[in-house]
Amino acid sequence: MSILGTGDYIYRVVKDWAKLPDGWALSDVASVAVDSKDRLYAFNRGAHPMIVFDRDGNFLTSWGEGLFRRAHGLSIDADDNLYCTDDGDHTVRKCTPEGKVLLTIGLPERPAPFMSGEPFNRCTHTALSPSGEIYVSDGYGNARVHKYTPDGRLIRSWGEPGSDPGQFNIVHNIATDADGFVYVADRENHRIQVFDGNGRYETQWNNLHRPCALCACGFRRKTFIIGELGPGMPVNLNVPNLGPRLTITDASGTRIARLGGEHGPGLETGRFLAPHGLAIDSRGDIYVGEVGVTNWSTSFPDRPMPAEVQTHRCLQKLQRMPA
Fold first, then answer.
1. Residue 214 belongs to what H/E stretch?
2. Is the C-alpha dihedral spanning 191, 196, 199, 200 positive or negative?
């Protein structure tokens, strides 16, 4: 049994949690979300883009085949509608839990010009304001956050390339809280930036390493889980204590606990490959989607990729233990 965390935040890694039909594979799990019934949605880059499990890891259903080009971000609203961000065709689709498309923002297969600031060029994630407005982080081919009405009308945008406050170097993930603040994972600037609902810069959280995944745990409680990628350059590839890992913070960005990452990436229980999506259920258990397939050649340039990375290793469950 592998235990991670410190203090009041102790977790047991549930080995081989997800149970797939024979012959199925998850591949990269780009993002995850939990609904009101504690069902886990795994938005992945395999043949079945949305795979749904119960909280014990039993397979329930799948959908999205032929709809999505490249899974990237997933969030969920109070009615269990899912906001699926596809950076491969530059869209956000709002879907029912059964996969019916209710709204599409963006034009499929028609990216905005690179770094133009116009939506979208490889958008990455979404978050909702307390009144249901939609924030979209955009992303790889832009350095921008866009705000939309609930029915998909653009209200405003902010951000530009750079490293100053309000600028971004891969705006990779986004979250909100009950007070309307917007939290942006500015990945390659190694920080989380915090804005008000209109894009006014408030503050930033530092002492992070390539923050990639971001989860607001409880809309009012204001605790956050941040998934950090490990080193990405040959010169620092084997440096310890840089991740990949999870960091838990309070509302000010002060670290409460850190899970893993001391000895770099790995397939061993209790280690991570590339945390890319995070969700938490009603019991405080954490689900981690990882892009280990995409990241393998970066982290392990001289090692063939084991089959388990493709089949099931990119989805992990961390069970919250009593304090």
1. strand 211-217
2. negative
Which tokens is 296 given? 């393998």
CB atoms < 10 A from the CB of 190, how many?
Answer: 17
Please state, as a whole number, how many other Cβ atoms lie within 10 Å of the Cβ of residue 145: 24
DSSP 284-317: --EEEEE-HHHHHHHH-TTSPPPHHHHHTTTEEE
Length in residues, the chain: 323
| Residue % of the chain over a pLDDT of 70 | 98
Q: Buried (b) or exposed (e) across 70-104, using 16+ Cβ within 10 A?
A: ebbbbbbbeeebbbbbbbebbbbbbbebebeeeeb
292-302 pLDDT tens trace? 999 999 999 99
State both tokens at 67: 């709809």
Residue found under tokens 């050649």: 297
Confidence of residue 219 (pLDDT cuts 50, 70, 90): low
**Average pLDDT, integer, range 273-285:** 97
d(CA 168, CA 138): 10
* pLDDT above 90 as % of the chain: 97
Residue 185's beta-bridge partner residues? 173, 192
Q: Is 185 helix (H, G, I), strand (E, B) or coil?
A: strand
